[in-house]
Amino acid sequence: MEPQKAGAAGVPALAITELRKQYDTGVQALKGISLQVDPGDFFALLGPNGAGKSTLIGIVSSLVNKTAGEVEVFGVNLSRDRDSAMRLLGLVPQEINFNFFEKPFDILVNYAGFYGIPRREAVQRAEEELKRAQLWDKAQMMSRTLSGGMKRRLMIARAMMTRPRLLILDEPTAGVDIEIRRGMWKTLKEINAAGTTIILTTHYLEEAENLCRNLAIIDKGRIVEQGPMRTLLAKLDVEGFLFDIDGELPAQLPVIEGTRLVAADSHTLDLDMPRAMDLNSVFARLNEAGIRVRSMRTKSNRLEELFVRMTGDGAQATAVDTTPETAA
Ligand SMILES: Nc1ncnc2c1ncn2[C@@H]1O[C@H](COP(=O)(O)OP(=O)(O)OP(=O)(O)O)[C@@H](O)[C@H]1O
Ligand SMILES: [Mg+2]
């Protein structure tokens, strides 16, 4: 009956089984979610507003009571041994929640003290974490004077003070500009490379694509898709391009087998083709038809497309229809 030793080979960093949450209001925020995150993974939880991401994170970090299901952190069952599970976990919540009238250095040292870390050790870690967060020069400033991006980085530094083996971030980059976001990605990649398992929720598909090896897409309390990022992207067998054309398009466009070619306007072509097909044959046909391509762009972010497909209206119908029409 003893919980598996944390970190034992083969024990997932996070194992969630049939997790359900019904709030007092009657809202069913989670309708039976199962997922597993491997040690060392960088895992994204994607989903639109109200999907249930924060509820899930809230349950894992003991801020929200579950209705049913099981949660294990490195083999430690959350219901049976909450304190041990919590010691393995660091949380960066959606809202900034440190005291603006404290200095970053004190915020970190006091936080560590709260977790029973001796002061000498805490002081040393605070220096390390502030340096990693590029906040060392701000260590003794009133934290209210930090910029939005700095405040976000301080939230991460604080969570790292307890040396968590699993770091969970709820929309760490919401509302920050792309430059700050990139800086935070770098920090998170470093933390992950040093061995910490990371789970984050995000609306930014670009973020998930950039950082994460595995992901789950959640919508209306259910997982609609999960797996390696690469596998999910490969499911999108159709690629879209826009061609800018020199001069006017002919009235009759060539028919290129296996593709869908339409005129977006009098000098732009819109093409959908299987990813396996090469563009040379397309260009050859356009050439024959006397159409000269001046430049081309990819039509959309593929992950974006996947997301829309999985969570949009009629998701049920399209979710199963991932096989390309051209497949044998
Ligand atoms: N404390 C609460 N009491 C009642 N209902 C709640 C509570 N918190 C969340 N909900 C509801 O549960 C559902 C899931 O909300 P949750 O905050 O988990 O979504 P989310 O995926 O984090 O969304 P967002 O991307 O907007 O942060 C929503 O319908 C929400 O209204
Ligand atoms: Mg949320």
Layout of helices and strands, plus pairs?
Layout: E1 14-22, E2 28-37, E3 42-46, H1 53-60, E4 68-73, E5 76-77, H2 82-87, E6 89-92, H3 104-114, H4 119-132, H5 148-160, E7 166-170, H6 178-193, E8 197-202, H7 205-211, E9 214-219, E10 222-228, H8 229-235, E11 238-245, E12 260-265, E13 268-274, H9 279-288, E14 293-298, H10 302-311, H11 315-319
Parallel strand pairs: 3-8, 3-9, 6-7, 7-8
Antiparallel strand pairs: 1-2, 1-4, 4-5, 9-10, 11-13, 11-14, 12-13
Helix pairs in contact: 3-4, 4-5
Bound molecules: adenosine-5'-triphosphate and magnesium ion (MG).
The site of magnesium ion has 4 residues, from helix 1.
Number of helices: 11
- Note the overall shape: elongated
CATH third-level topology of the largest domain: Rossmann fold
What's the CATH superfamily of the largest domain, by name?
A: P-loop containing nucleotide triphosphate hydrolases
Helix content: 25-40%
Write the element-wise H/E pattern from the N-terminal end onward: EEEHEEHEHHHEHEHEEHEEEHEHH
Q: Which class of secondary structure composition applies to the elements?
A: alpha/beta
Cα-atom Rg, whole angstroms?
24 Å
Average pLDDT taken over every residue: 87
What is the level-2 CATH architecture name of the largest domain? Answer: 3-Layer(aba) Sandwich
Number of domains: 2
Ligands bound here?
A: adenosine-5'-triphosphate, magnesium ion
Gap from first CA to last CA: 51 Å
Q: What is the CATH class designation of the largest domain?
A: Alpha Beta
